[in-house]
């Protein structure tokens, strides 16, 4: 995204933007400099980083249960169907001029 601008003091939104790589390069460099010298900022950043682990742990079993093989088979079938429709017998095409000429000849 990288369209927002973040300046000190950094709030949670700024920290999460940095964690997600959504800060501009200049803002990220400024944040990293502040991170190195500000113990509170470093602690809050570490806290937000670890809170993400709870989500990973909570959703990891769902990823293991995801029907990847079935989904891949459906995707492959749809891609094959699309390829078949592309290689099917071509429809006759007429130029617009030919159609105009034909319509005039009926008059």
Kindly report how far apart the N and C termini lie: 60 Å
One letter per element, helices H and strands E, the order comes to HHHHH
Radius of gyration: 29 Å
Silhouette:
elongated
- The percent of residues in helical segments reads over 70%
Low-confidence stretches: none
Mean pLDDT: 84
Separate helix tally = 5
SS strand fraction? under 5%
The beta-strand count equals 0
**How many strands, which pairing sense, and closed or not: the largest β-sheet?**
none
Q: Structural class, from helix and strand content?
A: mainly alpha
Nutshell version of this structure?
The chain is mostly helical.
Explain how this protein is built.
This protein has 107 residues and is mostly helical. The chain has a domain of 67 residues. It is built from five helices and no strands. It is elongated and about 85 Å long. The model has no long low-confidence stretch (mean pLDDT 84).
Could you list some keywords that capture this structure?
107 residues; mainly alpha
Describe the secondary structure blueprint for this structure:
Layout: H1 12-19, H2 25-37, H3 39-65, H4 68-87, H5 96-105
Helix pairs in contact: 1-3, 2-3
